[in-house]
Design brief:
Blueprint (H helix, E strand, L loop, with lengths): L1 E7 L16 H16 L3 H6 L6 E8 L8 E12 L2 E10 L2 E11 L15 H9 L4
Antiparallel strand pairs: 1-3, 2-5, 3-4, 4-5
């Protein structure tokens, strides 16, 4: 299951060489996660309001090509897997079929106290996640 997002590169996101600075890729990935949750689950804010938070544990980014100011990025975001209270998502950025970057993010599902919780404590929203994220 995946979602598709379109992101226009802004001038402020490019560096002196005229290409997207590497620090912006995690921001683009965040947009992909936001769109994925809206398209396949519900807005992430609803999970937060019910006490399910998903902080990032790690990121991986591999830059495969160039993107610059004015380019329209196409971002595919996929739910890779879910195991207990950990989820992984992956991302693939391209411009008109040309690869720009790919990566992944690992998240922990925690409660409002930012500590791992037993999945049974998350209630029905956790079951929605189980339906969307495959098991490894």
């Amino acid at each position: 299951m995946e979602s598709l997002s379109q992101i226009a590169v802004r001038y402020a996101e490019s560096d002196q060489m005229g290409v997207v600075h590497h620090s912006h890729y995690p921001v683009y990935f965040e947009q992909g996660r936001t769109d994925f949750f809206i398209q396949h689950l519900r807005p992430y804010a609803e999970f937060e309001s019910q006490g399910i938070l998903a902080p990032v544990l790690s990121y991986q980014v591999e830059i495969l090509g160039r993107a610059g100011y004015g380019d329209l990025l196409h971002l595919r975001t996929r739910a890779d897997w879910m195991k207990g209270v950990r989820i992984q998502m992956s991302y693939y950025l391209e411009i008109e079929g040309r690869a720009v970057a790919r990566g992944s993010s690992l998240h922990a599902l925690v409660g409002p106290d930012l500590k791992p919780a037993n999945p049974r404590q998350f209630g029905p929203l956790y079951q929605e996640l189980v339906k969307v994220f495959p098991r490894p």
